[in-house]
Design goal:
InterPro entries: ArAA_b-elim_lyase/Thr_aldolase (IPR001597), Low_specificity_L-TA-like (IPR023603), PyrdxlP-dep_Trfase (IPR015424), PyrdxlP-dep_Trfase_major (IPR015421), PyrdxlP-dep_Trfase_small (IPR015422). Its cofactor is pyridoxal 5'-phosphate. By secondary structure, the chain is an alpha/beta fold. The protein has 2 domains: about 90 residues, Aspartate Aminotransferase, domain 1 (Alpha-Beta Complex), CATH 3.90.1150.10; about 230 residues, Type I PLP-dependent aspartate aminotransferase-like (Major domain) (Aspartate Aminotransferase, domain 2, 3-Layer(aba) Sandwich), CATH 3.40.640. The chain is about 40% helix and about 15% strand. The chain is built from 14 helices and 13 strands. Strands 2-8-7-6-5-3-4 form a 7-stranded mixed beta sheet, with helices on both faces. Helix 2 runs parallel beside helix 11. The radius of gyration is 20 Å and the shape is globular. Bound molecules: pyridoxal-5'-phosphate. Pyridoxal-5'-phosphate binds next to helix 3. The site of pyridoxal-5'-phosphate (PLP) has 13 residues, from helix 3.
């Protein structure tokens, strides 16, 4: 290969950088003091997201992890058991805060189906029985490769949880991707949940920010917990402005999905063992994960480890020609 290789970063859809339009919106945002009373741009963002999700109210938070934590903190009493799919972000990727700070006792479901929820929740238990009070959903499911829960499956899971008295929280970090992949509104995929968290800083490309949403009374309490966790920001409109621009870009995610298909089929043609992507995440099974990640780096392709596999994530800062270039480098590298 001649000359320096331009790195192509497929580690995550969080690596996107705000473009000119987004930076301009941030620079000119109308602001207030969101801790004292309200910042108008924050308020506009929260209202817009609540509308998209079909819930009463929403609250901007600095990260998806904080959004999930606030929801779990308010749902769980100390020692309550909560159910989540195996490999869920709340179980594996949030430093144990569900237990450490929210006081919950996790129970992972290897297969997430309505009967599995019913069986795990159990029925009435004697006074010395464990209390199971919450079901945590994740759509798309990151660690299983950006897989999508359909509207019907979502409704069945929520109904199962309800029938046994569980509250429901949805980790919708990539709910936008699920919505675009299925061609249904985000609100349909959040129907019936008590609380939902969505990220603005993944495929939508904001530099920072998530939103946690639910009833108006949930958001009133969530605002207190956010402050307690150090997540109250003052002139947050500067950040919310980026979120508003990000929300204009939901449809763009379709390009990430088609780039993921292109990458998966190209890898397969090169002999790789690759799961069929449902959204913007491609998982490849390799004999030696560390060695593969290193040799990818050597040809200027950054990927990340996930569930014992190589994870490639497509996003707004890579296009179809970048994917073609990744495949070209791999072809020439043999
Ligand atoms: C990224 C992600 C989050 C939140 O991540 P932050 O980095 O804290 O914003 C939550 N859940 C899932 C499934 C995610 O992929």
């Amino acid at each position: 290969m001649i000359g320096p290789v331009t790195p192509i970063d497929l580690r995550s859809d969080t690596v996107t950088r705000p473009d000119e339009e987004m930076r301009r919106a941030m620079a000119s945002a109308e602001v207030g003091d969101d801790v004292l009373d309200h910042d108008p741009t924050m308020a506009a963002l929260e209202e817009r997201v609540a509308g998209l999700l079909g819930v009463e109210a929403a609250l901007w938070v600095p990260s998806g992890s904080m959004g999930n934590l606030i929801a779990l903190f308010l749902h769980l009493d100390r020692g309550d058991r909560f159910l989540a799919p195996l490999g869920a972000h709340v179980l594996d990727a949030e430093l144990g805060t569900a237990a450490w700070l929210a006081g919950g006792m996790p129970h992972a479901l290897p297969v997430l189906t309505a009967p599995a929820v019913l069986a795990a929740a159990g029925g009435e238990s004697p006074y010395y029985g464990l209390r199971t009070t919450l079901l945590c959903l994740e759509n798309t499911h990151n660690s299983s490769g950006g897989t999508v829960t359909s509207a019907d499956d979502h409704a069945a899971l929520v109904a199962a949880a309800r029938s046994t008295g569980l509250a429901v929280h949805l980790d919708g970090a990539r709910l936008w991707n699920a919505s675009v992949a299925l061609g249904v509104p985000p609100a349909t995929l959040a129907a019936g949940v008590d609380t939902v968290q969505v990220c603005l800083s993944k495929g939508l490309g904001a530099p920072v920010g998530s939103v946690v949403a639910g009833s108006a009374s949930f958001v009133t309490e969530a605002r207190r917990v956010r402050k307690m966790l150090g997540g109250g920001v003052r002139q947050g409109g500067v950040l919310a402005a980026a979120g508003l621009v990000a929300l204009d870009r939901i449809d763009r995610l379709a390009a990430d999905h088609s780039n993921a298909y292109q990458l998966a089929s190209g890898l397969r043609a090169l002999g790789w063992e690759v799961d069929e992507p449902a959204t913007n995440i491609v998982l490849a099974t390799v004999p030696d994960l560390e060695k593969t990640l290193l040799s990818l780096r050597e040809i200027g392709v950054a990927a990340s480890p996930m569930s014992g596999k190589v994870r490639f994530v497509t996003h707004g800062d890579v296009d179809s020609s970048d994917v073609a270039e990744v495949l070209r480098r791999l072809r020439e590298d043999v």
